[in-house]
Amino acid sequence: MTAPTHPPGRARTWKARIPSIVLIVLAIGIAAYAVPRYLTGNPDDSAVPLGPDPMLHYLVLTAHAAPAGLALILGPFQFITPLRTRFPRAHRVTGRIYMICIALGAMAGLVAATISVDGFSAQIAFYLLNLAWLYSLAQGFRHIRRGEVRLHRVWMIRNYALTFSAVTLRIFLVIGLMLRPTLGVEFTEIYSASVWASIFVNAVAAEYFIVTRIVTPALRRRRPQPSGPRGASVHVRVDQLDHPSAVEDLTVAGIHDPNR
Ligand code: HEM
């Protein structure tokens, strides 16, 4: 997720690009590792245990993993500012494909959570993740339809952070399985702990990114305004700084320029 924190006109250094490159590599790597086994048509290839009707369960996972994997790959490119500004039409087309993928992936994900045999705790985590995934997508869509570009960006950062929990989950799972002999816990416990931890870590990371890279710079750009409509005072409480409406308040009041 790249943000224009460098002075306008100055190219980003390679060092500044490293987090975005790591994100893209991890997203493509996990999609390439996790999804193809659900495209073979053979339930024996499933990485998770299947229920009483293995073929049906496997097809549900295919219907979930294929679009979700595509969304995971497409997502990072939507945040690359030069790509977005130079090819706005491509951003719109890719954005629509991303949204359709998530809608399909989430619907199949709800069914997958219902028939999962990996334990009640993981099922609840998956239900909540699915709902948050759809809600953040709907908010992102609603704001861009209204022309509220910054709020669209904020919600799509949240949404992609949830998409990226597929990556974090698998990293935590690998670590948990390596520590399993020491921890002496069941696989389902490691699995559900990894699901919960991935959601928590990614949600916190998204909020941290939004506050430090979007909300704080917007608030710092506040300058004393002369009286008149553009100088109308805006009250943003400290506990509201992480709320996107704080950014929109500044934009609406003309204190903050959404095109900067
Ligand atoms: C962020 C929202 C997501 C939710 C709520 C979700 C939900 C689920 C659920 C409920 C299952 C079944 C797990 C089980 O039976 O124990 C599952 C499996 C799976 N999901 Fe997702 N998922 C999400 C995102 C993704 C993404 C972005 C990918 C892209 C790679 C993905 C790929 C898979 C795969 C490949 C499986 C099959 C199990 C495995 O091989 O690990 N999911 N998902």
TrEMBL record:
Taxonomy, superkingdom: Bacteria
Keywords attached to this entry: Membrane, Transmembrane, Transmembrane helix
Residue ranges of the TM segments: 16-35, 55-77, 97-115, 121-138, 159-179, 191-215
Entry keyword Membrane: yes
A Pfam family matched in the record: DUF2306
Protein name: DUF2306 domain-containing protein
Species whose genome carries this gene: Agromyces neolithicus
